[in-house]
Amino acid sequence: MYKAPRKIKAAFLSWSGTPTGATHTYDCSVDSETESFVTVASSTNITLGSGAYYVIAYPDYTRSDTGTNNEVYWFLDGSQIGKRGGSDHYDGESCDNAEASFVLTGAGVLTLRQTAWSGSALVLTSHCKALIMKVEE
Predict the structure, then answer these.
(1) Within 13 Å and on the Cβ side, how many CA atoms surround 12?
(2) Contact between residue 126 and residue 82 where contact means Cβ atoms under 8 Å apart
(3) Is the pLDDT of residue 42 over 90?
């Protein structure tokens, strides 16, 4: 049986904001999309329609010493999802990228949040980027 090829859409985002505590929701803005499918409301809420998604956030921070660390997660409709990201070697881990995959049967709201930190505040650079990929049948 023939199955039509899947359609993949991609959106590239920048994220920013200076965390002021252990919990902080980052501002996001859409840099470009292959097709329009991402909407950002109130600078932090990424609204998505139904489909299968893969999201990854690439952080870039300036910090005063190796004891200054944070962790970042994606949240979908208020629930933490996926793999932790953050500054280098937070809690003995070496991966910086926060990433998740999920399926939405209706609209959903995605946010990128800091969930913990140690030391003093980190300063984000302009190189904090995220990729959202959507697969449709």
Answers:
(1) 6
(2) no
(3) yes
